[in-house]
Amino acid sequence: MRFVIQVCQKADVKIDNAVVGAIDRGLVVFVGVGQNDTEAIADRMVKKLLGLRIFADENGKTNLSVRDVNGSLLVISQFTLYADCRHGNRPGFTDAGAPDMANRLYEYVLGKCAETGIPVARGEFGADMKVSLINDGPFTILLDSDTL
Is 6 known to be catalytic? Predict the structure, then answer.
């Protein structure tokens, strides 16, 4: 499983020009599900995500989590995080999880995040989405379950 996490001042996701999810200060989390991912892997990823101290404290040090700053999450599925660009110029996606399994784990991640009481907005699995965000920092983290 892969998460691309971006600290934001605000963000939204639109489908057919309609906003389906929006947050103010918080994290935009793009979620890629791989073929061998499980709920146990998702649990580890969510725990790490929510514990990341990537917001500045009163001294300007990255020492606070999304919960510490009363932030929100915008969680968006993105199978392209499993692009394989090693051969030629057209990415392959054979390492991405099958749609049914990937959607189930994406929904699982959303549920685990929501259980914490942190406000969670979302995209729509498989939809053509337009994501807008004001990246704060910019501050972007890549979490990969293979390296946690």
Answer: no
Please indicate whether residue 35 is annotated as part of the active site.
Answer: no
Distances (CA, A) of 52 to 19, 56, 108: 28, 12, 20
Phi, psi of 93 (to 5 degrees): -130, 30
Q: Note down the domain range covering 41.
A: 2-147
Q: Give pLDDT tens digits for 89-122.
A: 999 999 999 999 999 999 999 999 999 999 999 9
Domain of 124: which CATH number? 3.50.80.10
Residue among 77, 70, 75 nearest 12 (CA): 75
Choosing from 78, 125, 140, 147, which is the catalytic residue?
Answer: 78
